[in-house]
Each structure stands twice: as C-alpha cells, then as structure tokens.
Amino acid sequence: MSTAATTRSQTRIVGAPVPRKEGIDKLVGRAQYVDDLTREGMFYGATVRSTIPRGLIRSIAFDPHIAWCDFTIVTAKDIPGKNHIQLIVADQPCLAETQVNHCDEPILLLAHPDKHKLLAAVAAVHIEYDPLPAVFSIEESESQKEIILGEDNLIKSFLLEKGDVDSAWARAAHIVEGEYRTGPQEHLYIENNGMIAEWSAEDGITVWGSLQCPYYVHKTLRAVFDLPDEKVRVIQTETGGAFGGKEDYPSVLASHAGLLAMKSGHAVKMVYDRMEDLAATTKRHPSRIRHRTALDADGKLLAMEIDLATDGGAYSTLSATVLSRATLHACGPYVCPNIRLRSRAWATNHVPYGAFRGFGAPQAIFAMERHMDAIAAALHIDPPIDPVELRRRNFLHQGDRNATDQLMREPVILDQLLDRALAESDYHAKRARYARENLASPVKRGMGIAAFYHGSGFTGSGELYLNSLAGVDVTPDEKVRVLVSNTEFGQGTNTILTQIAAEALGLEFSDVTMVPPDTAHIPNSGPTVASRTGMVVGRIIERACLQLLALLRESAGLQEKSTREQFFAACRRFRAAHGKVESLCYYEAPPGIHWDDATYHGEAYGAYAWAVYVAQVAVDTVTYSAEVEDFWAVQEVGRVLHPVLATGQIEGGVAQAIGYALYEKVVLENGRMANNQMTNYIMPTAEDVPPIHVVFEEIPFRYGGYGAKGIGELPHDGPAPAILNAIRDATGVPFNAIPLLPEDLFATLAAREHPENLWEPVAS
Amino acid sequence: MSTRWDSIRFTVNGQPRTVHAPPMKRLLDVLREDLHLTGTKEGCGEGECGSCSVRMNGELVNSCLVPVLQAEGAQIQTVEGLAPDLDSGGALHPLQEAFLHCGGAQCGICTPGMLMAAAQLIERHPHPSQAEIREGLAGNLCRCTGFARIFASVVAAATHAAPEQEPDAR
Amino acid sequence: MRGDPEAHELIAPGNLAAVLQLLAAEPGAWTPIAGGTELMVAHAAGRLTARKLVSLWEIPDLRFIRVDEGTIAIGAGVPFIDLRRNAAIAAQLPLLARAASWLGSIANQSRATLGGNLVNGSPAADSSPALLAYDAQVELISARGRRTLPYEKFHTGYKRTALAPDELLLAVHLPRRFARHRQYLRKVGTRRAMAIAKVALAGTALVEENVVRELRLGAASVAPYPTRLYRTEEAILGNSITEETIRTARRALLAEIAPIDDIRSVAEYRRRVAANLVEEFLRELMHSAAPVDAPLMNAALAAWNSADESTALTQMLACCGARRWASAMVAMRPVQDQEALLAVADRIWAAMEEPDWREAFACHPRIGERKAAHASAPPSAQKSAQWSRQEQSGAAQAEARVLEELARGNAQYEERFGFTYIVCATGKSAEEMLDLLNRRLGSDRATELREAAEQQRQITEIRLRKWMAA
Ligand SMILES: Cc1cc2nc3c(=O)[nH]c(=O)nc-3n(C[C@H](O)[C@H](O)[C@H](O)COP(=O)(O)OP(=O)(O)OC[C@H]3O[C@@H](n4cnc5c(N)ncnc54)[C@H](O)[C@@H]3O)c2cc1C
Ligand code: FES
Ligand code: FES
User: What distance in angstroms lies between residue B45's CA and the mean position of ligand 2's atoms?
Assistant: First the structure.
C-alpha cells in the first residue's frame, strides 16, 4: 500500500463499511461504562432535591433515626470555588443555597459506603421552604407578572431582519397565519447519567463518566473546585447514548460526585436510576412558533414574520445557543426576500431545558414545514397548488441567498432530492389512492412531506472562537493515534476519525487507534455536538495527517510513493531525531465566512445538509391512534464516510423523531415530571418503528473531512412535520402541536363525528 | 433490619457458581457485583428496557426483576457466554458477527440484552419473519439505531447460522 | 435500585402444602411472589412494603395446564409464555392466547404468571377481559380447603380481591364451549408493544338467525377493576344487530362505565374508544351474521347492490350531488339494509370536505327559484330536480313579496359565503326558509359551511329514504 495511492474522491477506507472501531468490545460485554467501574473503597452518592418549583429554603433538618455520622454530607457551603455550573452564563448553582427555582433541584449531597442506605437517608432530610409563585409556561413568563429571572424573565432574544416586511403585506395575494407548538422531549439514552470522582490534595480532582464534552466538564470543575487546569482531569467512559443529553448535565453530576469525594476522602460513584434521570436532567426545549406569511399570486413567498418562543427552564444553561440555531433554521430552505423573525427564550420554573439532537432546529422546522402545508391548503390558486409544488416554487438554489443573506455557494439539489423522495415513496399515486379508499374505511391513510436543511458545525463565528486543536501521533510500537477530545457515544466518532487518518496516511484501518478520551492526554478539539465531528474535526485530522506526511518527507526521508513499512521507518528516524512523532493542527475556516452576531447576517454555517422526507401514516378512527407505516429519508450530506454508520444515524434519528411526533409526552405537574418512568414515558419499540428507506445523494464538501458535512442531527428535523402533514392528508384536519397522542387526535377528530356518537349520559 | 443471607447455586455460562447474598437481591446485581459479569446492563430497573435481559433455563428474562433466590439451580446465560472461547482465539457468536458488520450496535448499551433476546428468538425461530423479529425484540429498547440495523443483523445471523434449514421449517 | 434487598425476607419452600401451612400459621404476614414482575418493580422503586415474601415460582402444583372434558384448567403459576404456546388454548381460547402474547414483552411473558396478573388486580390487566368473556371460574386454596367462584366475582374493589389472607389463587377454569361463538379482543395502548391497556374489550357472542342469543363482554381500564359489561350486554341480547342496536349498545355502555383520568390517558378518550370497540365488535357480528341476500332486503337496495357501477352511481348522485361521496357509497356495496345505508351515508358525508360540500350544494336550485332540469340533463339531475320541486313545495305557494325577498337574500348570501343557500326544505314554508336565511346570514363562514353541510346531510337522508321507499 502506498501513501499517495488515493485521492480525495478515490478512497480505500473512507466510504467503506469497516467494522466499528470499538464494536467487538461492545458486543462481547467488555466495554466499560461508568457503572461497570469500581474504585478501591468507593462510596455511593445521592442527591437531596427540591420538592417545590420555587421558594426560599427556610430550614434543613436531619431526622435523628438515621446514623448521620456514617454519611458524608455536602451542602453549598462545602464548595471551595464558585457555586455555579460554567456554561454560557453562570446562573445555575451547583447546589441551591438559599432559593430553589425548579423541582428536583439539587440542594444537598449524601455519600455512604452502602448504596442501599441512601434512599432512607435522602427521605430523612427534611427541608422547609417559603414557597414563591412559580411560572410554568411561555405565556406566564412573557406576561412578566412574576419575575423569576433577571429583570424580565428573558434568557435571550434575537432579531433577524431582511428586506422590508411591513410593506409586503399590502402587495400580497395571500396571507396565511399559523401557530405551532412543540413539547419537551426526553433523550432517553439507555444508559443513565453517571460519574465517579476521586480527589486528592496532590492530584486535584479526577472524574470518570458518561459524557459528551470532556472540556465542558473540565471548565466547570476548575471553577467549582477553584483548581488550575492540570489539577482537573476528566475521563470519558464508554457512553451509552447521549443525543445532547450528556452535553451540559455531566458538569453538574461531576461537580457533585467531586464534592462528595473531596469531603469523604473516598472515591464516590453517582449513577442515577431512571426515575431520577428522567425527573432531574435536561430535555428538549418546548416551543411556540407563530408564522405570518405573505405570498404573491403564484404562490411565491413574499414575506415572513415569525415569532419564536422557547421555554428555557429555570436557568439559562444552553438556551441561548439553542435559540440561535432555532432562529437560523426557522425560515426553511426557501427564498424569501422579506423576513422579520423575533425569537425569545423565556425562563420558567421547569428543570432547565438543554441540548438535544437538532438543538432548536427540529422545533423551528416543525413549525415551518407544517406551515408550508397550511399555506398550500389555504391558497386558492388556479391551477391548484399542492404541498409539493408550493415547496418547489420556493426552494433555495445555488446562487440564492437564505434568511441571513448567506450566499449558497455550493450546489443545492433540493429539486433532485424532492423528485427522488416522491419517486421512492410513490407519493402522488398513493395520495390519490388513499383519497379514494379513506372514504369507506375506518383507517385513514395519508402522505406527508417535509423539506429542510441543517447547518453543520457551530453557528457563525463559533468555530473560530472554539479554535479546535486536533491531530495524530505515532507511538514507538507503530500505532497511529488520533488525538481529539471528541467522544464516541454511538454515532461513530472513533470509526470515522480513524478511517480518515488511515486513509490520509495510506495505512490500514487497524494501524490507527484513538487516544483514550482523557483531558490529561488529549487536545481540546471542541465539544462533540452540532454535527461537527466528521466535517470540522475530520478535516483537521485530514490536514494533520497530510502535514505529518509532509514533515516526514521533508525531514525523515519519506518518499513520495511509499509503503506502510517505509512510513513507520520514517517515523522511527523522525522520533530518533526529535523525540516524538506528532502532528497537530488548528481549525481553519473555509474562505469567505463572515458572520455578524449583532445583526444576525452572514454565513451562519460553513455548510448545510439538505433533505426531503416523506411519511406514510395510518390513522385509526376507532382508537384515534396514528402510526407511521412507511418512511423515506432522502438527503445530501456531502461525502458519506461510512455507509452503515451513516444509515444507522439517519434511521436512529428518524425513529427518535417519530417518538417526538407521536409518542413521547413529558407530563408536567406543578413543574415536576409526573411520568418519570419508562412505563409511562413511551418511546417507540421495535414493533412501532416503520421501515425507513434511507437514500444519500453525495456532493463532497471541499472543506469537510474527506468531503463530509454534518449528519447526526439532520434526521431529527424532518419526521415530525412530515408525519403531521400526512395526518392532515389522511384526516383533513390540521394538527399543529406535538407530541400528538391518541388523546389529542381524539379531542379533535371525535368532535367531527356523527352526533349520535357524541351522546353522553347527562350527569344527574 | 437485616435479613438472612442465602447460599445460592446456579450455573452461569456453563460454570457452576455459588453466591452468598440476600435472597431478594436482584439477579442483575448478583451478576454484576458478585460475579463481575458487567456485560449485563441496567437501563430502567422496571422491566421496560431489556438491557438486563439474560437467558434463564432457556427462556429470556429481565434479570432486574428476578430475585436471586428464584434463580437457584437455574442455567443462566449472559452476553459473556455467547462467545465463550473468544479469549483463547475462538470466534464471535454469529449474532455478534452480524451485529458488527451490519451496524447492529451503536452506543452498545442495549446490545448485550438485545443479543440475548436475538439469541432466544433465533433458537425458537431459526428463520424469523420480520414480524417475529419485531415481536422478539420489542422488549429491548434501543434509542440509537431505530432498530433497522438490528433487524438486518438478526436476518444476517439467521441466514448464516442455519443455512441448511428446510424452508418449510419456519 | 432504591429498595434495600436486606430489608426483605424471601423463602422458597418449593411445594404448595408448605406454602399453605406458612400462610395458615401467620395469615397476612407472608406475601406470595410468583414471577415478581409486579413486586420486583415495586422493590426497585423502593415501594415494596411486604417484608416477608414466599416464592411460588415453579411450584409444580401451580404450574399446569389441564384439558378436561368440559373445561381447561390453568394453574395460577403458569407464565404467559406457556399460555401462548399451548395448542389447546390457541385452538379453544384464542382470546386468551392473544392476550398472553400482548402482555409486556417476551422477557415479561416468561416470568409473569396468570395468577399474579389476576391477584395484582390492576384495572388494566391483560388476561382479565378474555377470562370474563369466557365465563371463567377461579379456584382458591388454603390449608382450610378449596373454593370456587366465578371470576367476575373475584375483584371486589380497586386492587382488592376475594382472597382471604391465608388463601392462594390455585387455578382458573375455562369452559370449553365457545367454538361456535364469534370472538373479539382488542387492546388499545399508546404503542404496539410493551403497552398498558388504556382500554381493552373482549367479547364472545352466539348469533342465531341474526339474533344475539348469548353475549359476554369483558373490559379493562374502564372501571376500578376489570368488569363484565352487563348492562351493555342486556341492551344487545335478544336483538338483531342493526344500526339502532349499535346506538343503543353505545348508550348503554357509556352509562355503564366509569373510567378515570390518569397519567396514561383521560376518561373521555377511554369512554369513546370503549364505545367504538363495542361498535366494532357488533359490526363484525353484523357482517358475519347477515347474508346479503336475506329475504327481507329492500327491493331498491337489492337492485342497487347488484346494479352496474354507473347505474348505482347515478342513483346516489340523485340523492346527493357530491361525486366523491357517491363513488364512496358505490364502493361500500353490498349494503345490507336501510339503516346501514343511512349510517354509511352519514359516515362518508362526515369525511367530506368543502369542495365536496359545495359540489352537492350546487346541484340544488336556489330556494324559491324554479329551474326545470334540461331534458338533456343526466338522469341523476332529472331525478334531483323532481325531488327539489317536492321539497320546495312550500315555496311554490308563497307570496310574490316573500319570493322577492328570498331572491334578494339568496344573492346576498352567495355574495357573502360564495355558495348557494341551502336548507332542508321539506315541510318548511317559504316564510320559515326566509327567516332561516336571514338568521344564517349572520354567521361566520366556517359555521355557515358546517350548517349547510348538515342541511345537505338531512336532504340526502330524506332522499335516500324516498328512493328506497319507491
Ligand atoms: C415491563 C412490564 C410490562 C408489563 N406489561 C403488562 C401488560 O401488558 N399487561 C398486563 O396485564 N400486565 C403487565 N405487566 C404486569 C405484570 O407483568 C403482570 O401483572 C403479571 O401477570 C404479574 O405476575 P407475576 O407472577 O409476575 O406477579 P408477582 O409480582 O409475583 O405478584 C403480583 C401479585 O400477585 C400476588 N400473587 C401472585 N400469585 C399469586 C397466587 N397464586 N395466589 C395469591 N396471590 C398471588 C402477589 O402476592 C402479588 O401481590 C407488566 C409488568 C412489567 C414489569
Ligand atoms: S433494567 Fe431490567 S428491563 Fe430495564
Ligand atoms: S445502541 Fe445505543 S441504545 Fe441501542
């Protein structure tokens, strides 16, 4: 094998279905998740949490029937550094001290060598409060009758303006309005949050845990423990699913376990059970999005006025960045000359909402794509315009500018994706057939569509601020190691980054490994979020490998065309001369990226992935339940680095989004999650997920790792609107809120039934 | 309030084992803590997710709901028992092989339970239909894959493992 | 895991006699645990109150399925996996086999026992509706002896049963006499698998000569415990299944059940779905019970049932001019009787949308205007025109002033709403129609559209009746 044997498009390993790097360990039960680890003399930790949504802590009493001397007890007073979690704004306490702002807020920590002693002890800590009025909805928060955060309850707002919206209404042939709502969604990773911490005066703090972003945790621990960089060490253990749910929360849990470890002098393990994880950790932000749209006589978009609001929960956490991504995706992949979009994240007394696959985009795209169908239904144009045609008339193309005035420099193939989706799903023929069959059948079928794009990587100048550093080194035993802080939690980070390194260096897949994700050994290549790993970090790795080859050619005599053996021989020579063989690169922005945070104008994302999804649904009018019978996901995501992993990402995202649309409801009672068990937080099972047909069109993106763009979040964006559009097609009824459970369908559909069915006995 | 501990004997992955434990301790915890077989996972503790699935006397059970006393004398198989000779150079179980190549495992946390459910399924239905696969795995929640690659893995393993099966044996 | 294993005692005597002795010695002190799929969930959540537990798992005297001459006896310790694999049960008690296959997942079925399901007494228990529909008996045992009672008497309140503190459930006995019965079972959960029933209904019925001679309906999640629906059964028994029977049955059911709002669903939903399930069962019975060529069939209907498609379509279009409605009606042939036809007509009409409605409205002459159908008009239009004349005979006798006002009102109405004013004119005078017109002019468009659609529904019904009476 020669190092220069492949080109960027003609690859050996990139694009091939190599086996998952850590696959065998996972399949034989050898992979070590946090709960599989123990430390010598380890204690177990538990959390005492608030039972009210808002109030002042009046007193804390310890029931005398517990032998408290056997327990380690930590309160806010034990925190050596700052009592807050370091995210965007440091407003979330690590432990509540004087006031609580949501149910299940951590107040006090306990540790004991026997984990079974903890339940009774937690119940024996009696906390009394002076309750304060609480706010549970966007409406209550924006009314500002009760101020619970800052001066106005507002966590963040954005204004995006383009053209002249106000003068457009008068010219409009049609104006269509709509309001759309989305509920909270739980990640429901199958491995709950968990962390082990150890503390010593010499080494500072070390944590092992289930997490996405080692350096986020690192940053919080530095602040909470008031320690220098080198005295904080964060090690990711095998992570059993994350989906954004282990982006911010592990900082909280790591601090807690660390505080108990410091005070007890023992290693402390804290692994939530399902009930605690559901009740106390983050969920997807609920939203309310209002659209007012002007169209011309041909059904072209003239103006959009959008009011987007999210419920951020009690602290700001990541709400501002989630809101930003929602804002940037709210106008869809369409050309519209005049736009005014106001978005606001409001504080409530709910558990803080956090990152979740799609990061605000699924909410915004749900509204936009439902609204497109509402527009198609409202337009009386001759000849009539259907949802497909309406979209086609307004699609962005290469050379157009989107809502932030970003020029679409790369090819945009929405028309092609649409054609493919229609053909694969047999959309038109099925719609016609169902329109006939539905009349006489208690099961109503329908087809629905959604078209959308998803920006890859951090927003705007985010990647520049991150300034990620990543690379490879070569060990004396002839292993190439990928040095990144990007983590594996199922999406395939390990596999695609090693594929890229092996490809670029002309080596075998088995020659490359990952450095264990441990902040003592890895550079900060940024968090593993925002669908950035393949595109952004992959590109840095690709460049670092090419840089290494150049270095070896320059100073270790490596030939232009060389074998694997010659490569390692050159590495040996280089090591002998320089001590180590390592090549690191910083992120380099693609040319022409300009972003203005103040006006929200410019290149919001380096690249977009594009998609058209089609759902086929059946609504049973006997039980008012809707099921997705079949699903087509057609997308352009740049180069597909690994066909099996990529397909799995799409299928998994679609399934999760089907849950978002039709099954998963967080029941909140007085601000507390009432259905915090798997038996009544309902995710789709193997019997509920339909066949999912995945189609990739590949247009390599010059500035992504081997041409990759983002893929991980995209599939969560489209299914919900496609499904609700299909339900509208099946029943004739527009439903504009998710989750849409049978009870919700019932409330509307039943009212349209034969009056005889409405007969109810009169209460006497 | 402390209860009597029992000595409980059973066979795990072909090995006779004796544990000394409170009789109401969950089989799951005995496997993980007493026998250090941490391949079996806990996802919910309420029988809903199947991450803790093991086979007990030839049936699939959720080990989080089995008090260890009720496993007295039982034959138990866990994920570690699917490819017992792996460390001495043996092969993966056909299901493991198929999951590896078809993308049946992503984050891997549901995988041990999923493999046990799949093993149970294939034993009862050597050539399972799509409906049988879906039903057989319905108690094992996977949040990563959307199940499609798992179904493909089971089909591949079934084809591979029992190629000589009579077509009408299903 | 919130429970403390050391806080609970568990013993496994291994045989029934020893367990019974233990219970007799300290009644109420010991809690039986079979498959543990209820109790271990409580244990994990730290909610298991029982301190002393005695295992029933794999006690041979409790794990048996015996097929006798008249009954099938199932031991309380039989896990659901055995139920669904048993050939006799599959053949003779298919509802029970099906219910077993729906309980939780395979891993739950291999541990969950029939006895645990019944004694636990959840209102949503999956085996209960089938046992009620099969008229099961339960056999209880204690050191004092055995007793048998009808299963429908076993539950005495929310999570309360007829078991004495020293008693165990020994077995369930099911009569083998349902081979000729029509059987029905449906469980409604939020997802297809791993779902707790939000409503479930099981039914067995014996229908002879179109009359329901025997009927048992068992339901879950509509009351504090699984129940027979006696009053609903009563409303149906002895009747032939007609649209009227279905309506009566729905009413009886709604008066009989008292579901609740809880974390899984809401009472209103459960009520309506339960009624829908009863209706679904009755319709299945109707279709299976009544051969289409029954002698009593209406002549016009019989002719229509066998007519060629275009003739059948013409006849429907005369009753209502919406083409989508008419073709759906034709697609529903054969229709068995007058009532079924009217019900189908209504159901299809309810599924129509604005364009269909307007198409139907447009086929009527304006009220007060006499538009003779052109001789070359299609036969459906001629028939329709003739009917319109009859319906609007009230307008024919009207004064010129009223007719003038009607004409003005019609124009105003059309301008405001964009379609012609339509009203079910049969039996109404011109003044009344004018009065109605003026009132409806005050509605908003959406309301008026619905109102007009309802008027059209009434007109269609009258026309269908006339057509069948002809
Ligand atoms: C994940 C999951 C899903 C489930 N899904 C369903 C479902 O879909 N439908 C459904 O109906 N149920 C479901 N269940 C509930 C449960 O599995 C059933 O009710 C099961 O039949 C209980 O039987 P068991 O033997 O496991 O009960 P156990 O937990 O052993 O006992 C339950 C109760 O019955 C008593 N008991 C048991 N046997 C006897 C006896 N012979 N005499 C006297 N008392 C006795 C016990 O003392 C206890 O009070 C589910 C449970 C889980 C964990
Ligand atoms: S942990 Fe046992 S089923 Fe979830
Ligand atoms: S692979 Fe992650 S839950 Fe299944």
Answer: 4
Q: Is A241 in the pocket of ligand 3 (CB under 6 A)?
A: yes
Residue closest via CA to ligand 3's atom 2 equals B107
Question: Closest residue of A to C6, CA-based?
Answer: A116
pLDDT tens track for A607-642: 999 999 999 999 999 999 999 999 999 999 999 999
The confidence band for C370, taking pLDDT boundaries of 50, 70 and 90, is: low
Stretch C337-348: mean pLDDT: 82
pLDDT at position A763 over 70: no
- CA B66, CA C41: separation in Å to the nearest integer? 10
More confident residue, A330 or C326: A330
From the list C81, C15, C10, C78, the residue with the least C-alpha distance to B68 is: C10
Contacts of C250 in chain A (CB under 8 A): 756-757, 759
Shared-domain flag, residues A544 and A622: no
Which residue shows structure tokens 């150049």? A550
Residue A438 sits in the same domain as residue A474: no
Q: Is the CB of B139 under 6 A from ligand 2?
A: no
Interface residue ranges in chain C relative to chain B, Cβ cutoff 8 Å: 1, 3, 5-12, 33, 35-37, 40-41, 43-45, 51, 53, 55, 57-58, 81, 101, 104-108, 110-111, 192-194
In tens, the pLDDT along C176-210 reads 999 889 999 999 999 999 999 999 999 999 998 88
State how far the Cα of A713 lies from the Cα of A357, in Å rounded to an integer: 5
The architecture in CATH of the region C182-285 reads 2-Layer Sandwich (3.30)
Answer whether residue A450 is part of any domain.
Answer: yes
* C-beta of residue A364 within 8 angstroms of C-beta of residue A172: no
For the segment C18-43, what is each residue's pLDDT rounded down to a tens digit?
999 999 999 999 999 999 999 999 99
pLDDT digits (tens, 9 = 90+) for A27-50: 999 999 999 999 999 999 999 999
Residue with the nearest Cα to atom 4 of ligand 3? Answer: B142
C5-55 CATH, one of 1.25.40, 3.30.43, 3.10.450, 3.30.460: 3.30.43
CATH 1.10.3330.10 for the C298-470 domain, yes or no: yes
ipTM over 0.90: yes
Round the CA-based radius of gyration of chain A to a whole number and report it: 27
Which residues of chain A does B107 touch, with a Cβ-Cβ cutoff of 8 Å?
Answer: 26, 189-191, 239-242, 489-490
What does the pLDDT look like over C268-313, one tens digit per residue? 999 999 999 999 999 999 877 554 444 556 888 888 888 888 889 9
Q: Supply the pLDDT for residue A762.
A: 33
**Nearest chain A CA: its distance from B57 CA (Å):** 21
How does the average pLDDT of chain A come out, rounded? 95
Q: Which residue range is the domain that position A719 belongs to? A: 395-458+606-757
The DSSP 8-state label assigned to residue A708 in this structure reads B
Q: How far apart are CA A272 and CA A169, in angstroms?
A: 53
DSSP symbols for A265-311: SS-EEEE--HHHHHHHS--PPPEEEEEEEEE-TTS-EEEEEEEEEEE
Backbone angles phi, psi at A743, to 5 degrees: -65, -35
**What confidence tier does A219 reach under pLDDT thresholds 50, 70, 90?**
very high
The pLDDT, as a whole number, for residue A764 is 30
- Close Cβ partners of A353 (under 8 Å, ≥ 6 residues apart): A184, A282, A283, A284, A285, A286, A310, A311, A312, A313, A317, A319, A322
| Domains of chain B, CATH where assigned | 6-81 (3.10.20.30), 86-165 (1.10.150.120)
Is there a single domain that holds both residue A526 and residue A571?
yes
Beta bridge partners of C74: C65, C172
List the residue whose alpha carbon is closest to atom 3 of ligand 3. Answer: B142
Please answer whether residues A136 and A81 qualify as being in contact, where contact means their C-beta atoms are separated by less than 8 angstroms.
Answer: no
Residues 6+ apart with CB under 8 A from C57: B70, C12, C33, C34, C35, C36, C77
Which phi and psi (to 5°) does residue A744 adopt? -75, -40
